[in-house]
Amino acid sequence: MKKISKDEIATFGENTRLVIGGREPSDYHGFVNPPVYHGSTVLAPTTKDLINHTPRYSYGRRGNPTSDALEEALKTLDGSAGVVLCPSGLSAVSTALLSCLSAGDHLLMVDSTYQPTRQFCDRVLSRFGIDTTYYDPLIGAGIETLIRPNTKAVYLEAPGSQSFEMQDVPAIAEVAHRHGAAVLLDNTWATPLFFDAFVHGVDLSIQAGTKYIVGHSDAMFGVVSASRKAWPALKSFHGDAGQCVAPDDIYLAMRGLRTMGVRLRQHQESALRVAKWLSKRPEVQRVLHPALEGDPGHTIWKRDFKGSSGLFSIVLQPAPMEAIGAFLDDLKFFGLGYSWGGYESLALPFDCSSYRSATSWDPGGPCVRLHIGLEDVADLIGDLDAGLARFRAARG
């Protein structure tokens, strides 16, 4: 197998980059996958080398050939200047935020963000003198009215974690950059395959790699990719904070990455079929999915995104909690869980009303977030059909 340069890899298609990025079989005796390095201590050949840090590796926390392989593959995929690996998605969020914020700074955070991100702002950043203002996800270029002299970062999530509002990333990024603020985006839903964060003005792109990168519900993992401007501060903070990921989790993330393209396309196809079916059900008021025509965010999604994933929400007709339980508790293929992005389908009842501050959440009925896995769509629809019949009966 011919050796391929990093520059050449960048010219290939996305699926090719997913398969070949970060691996070089000739470096490890022809084995297809990079070896998993377990270790903390790295020995230097001489005292001079040890003191001057001349070897490529100095300590396990600072990286090894396993982490290098995954970082290179991810960097090749999204075209970033650099990538850091974190032990969870929330760790990636906190690492990205702390790499560009200091005491006395002001952060603009989207009101529809992942709830643990909000808790990090309210419980941790506030203790360090960093002020957070939550903003309407639909604000677009109007975010300029919220910019202060000390605004150092604007954080986006497109679409929203449960409510699926679509943000105008380029418009917000243009305003933020004009005022010298960094732009951060949680890109877990679309991944770099379906949304090119850096082309659209993002400085720090965050993924909960636990979701689609790992893809098999068997490892916790997070990643932050940086633009050239944001990379030095991100790299420095990541090292100073002692962030690192265990080699076995890196291996699982790398294994998942190789098949992410085919999995994500299947998640997309199946989710759209299920979403369209649900949109015609009398028990369902609305389907919250920006890839559906008629969704409020569809125009922006169609303009900026190349695809959609397996996650969306539905708003049911008004009903008591007992009816929600009747719908969900006896589903055969949908587990009840807080994660998503794995091969299995999941369902999660939710209510955003208690943790919105810049906007109100009153959808007119109970909400359920669905992750459509890799099961046969006919089986999933049959399962939901039976669940909605139970819901209807429990409503009375």
Automatic annotation (TrEMBL):
Which UniProt keyword terms apply here? Lyase, Pyridoxal phosphate
Source domain of life: Bacteria
Biological pathway: Amino-acid biosynthesis; L-methionine biosynthesis via de novo pathway; L-homocysteine from L-cystathionine: step 1/1
As its record notes, the protein acts as a catalyst of: L,L-cystathionine + H2O = L-homocysteine + pyruvate + NH4(+); an S-substituted L-cysteine + H2O = a thiol + pyruvate + NH4(+)
Return one GO MF term: cysteine-S-conjugate beta-lyase activity
The protein's required cofactors: pyridoxal 5'-phosphate
Q: Which GO terms describe its biological process?
A: L-cysteine catabolic process to pyruvate; transsulfuration
Give the modified residues of type N6-(pyridoxal phosphate)lysine.
Answer: 211
Task: Fetch the InterPro entries from UniProt.
Answer: Cys/Met-Metab_PyrdxlP-dep_enz, Cys_b_lyase_bac, Cys_met_metab_PP, PyrdxlP-dep_Trfase, PyrdxlP-dep_Trfase_major, PyrdxlP-dep_Trfase_small
The record's annotation in PANTHER family points to:
CYSTATHIONINE BETA-LYASE-RELATED
Q: Which family does it belong to?
A: Belongs to the trans-sulfuration enzymes family.
| Protein name per Swiss-Prot or TrEMBL | Cystathionine beta-lyase
Q: Which organism is it from?
A: Labrys okinawensis
